[in-house]
Design a protein that fits this description.
- By secondary structure, the chain is α/β, with parallel strands linked by helices.
- The chain is built from 3 helices and 6 strands, in the order H-E-E-H-E-E-E-E-H.
- Strands 1, 2, 3, 4, 5 and 6 form a 6-stranded mixed sheet that branches.
- A hairpin with a 4-residue loop joins strand 5 and strand 6.
- Helix 2 packs across helix 3.
- The longest helix is centred in the last third of the chain and has 34 residues.
- It is elongated, with a radius of gyration of 29 Å.
- The two termini are 53 Å apart.
């Protein structure tokens, strides 16, 4: 009697496990239901006035499809689908704390240069603005961008995905390292690093939207 009960429980457990496995496989196939085997990513079309490392966005979009593995990345002339990216708007704006670099010997802020020297008492050097650098700098910078992404069915010449994405990032832009060249290189490295994170988030959202749509 106990042996029969054990067999029935084992059979029931097997059936439940099999049904769950089938349900998972069925739902997984639904996500994978798309008509393409290969895809290509076209170079970024940039119509903004900002100088941004948009080649990073192009690279990260390709890497995202490679990591996903459901489509083979190839050239546009051999692909079933094509991703186009239009960087429509972008801005770099100061944020965070504004640091006043033009200060006199007594610590006061220099808002304007002394009056023109007319032969009497000469101006004090420390009270003249330094024209070789900015008078004020921000310790952070905000990046924002608007990108339109289309995915084309190259066989039917139709668009299967067309969406606009808003991106933003905030990064430290001033470390007061002293040397202007080092400050510039440090700023560019941080800009590239944060733009890469923005591009990775964009690629992740595009893949999610594309595979859900298809």
């Amino acid at each position: 009697m106990r042996l029969n009960i054990a067999k029935k429980l084992a059979l029931l457990l097997y059936c439940l496990t099999s049904s769950l496995s089938c349900a998972y496989q069925f739902s997984h196939l639904q996500v994978m239901k798309y008509p393409f085997r290969s895809i290509a990513v076209e170079g970024i079309y940039d119509t903004t006035s900002e100088v941004l490392p948009h080649e990073i966005m192009w690279s990260e979009m390709q890497r995202a499809f490679i990591r996903d593995g459901r489509l083979m990345l190839t050239s546009p002339d051999q692909a079933d689908a094509l991703v186009t990216l239009h960087l429509k708007e972008a801005s770099l704006s100061p944020a965070g704390t504004i640091v006043d670099l033009d200060r006199s010997s007594n610590g006061g802020s220099i808002r304007k240069d002394p009056s023109v020297f007319k032969g009497k008492e000469p101006p004090i050097f420390d009270e003249i603005k330094n024209l070789t650098r900015a008078g004020e700098v921000a310790d952070k910078q905000a990046i924002s961008a608007s990108v339109n992404v289309k995915i084309w069915d190259l066989h039917k010449q139709t668009v299967v995905l067309n969406r606009d994405y808003a991106l933003s990032e905030l990064f430290m832009s001033a470390d007061n390292v002293g040397d202007p060249m080092n400050e510039f290189l440090n700023h560019e490295e941080k800009l590239s690093s944060d733009f890469k994170r923005m591009s990775q988030r964009l690629a992740s959202r595009v893949l999610q939207d594309f595979f859900i749509t298809n």
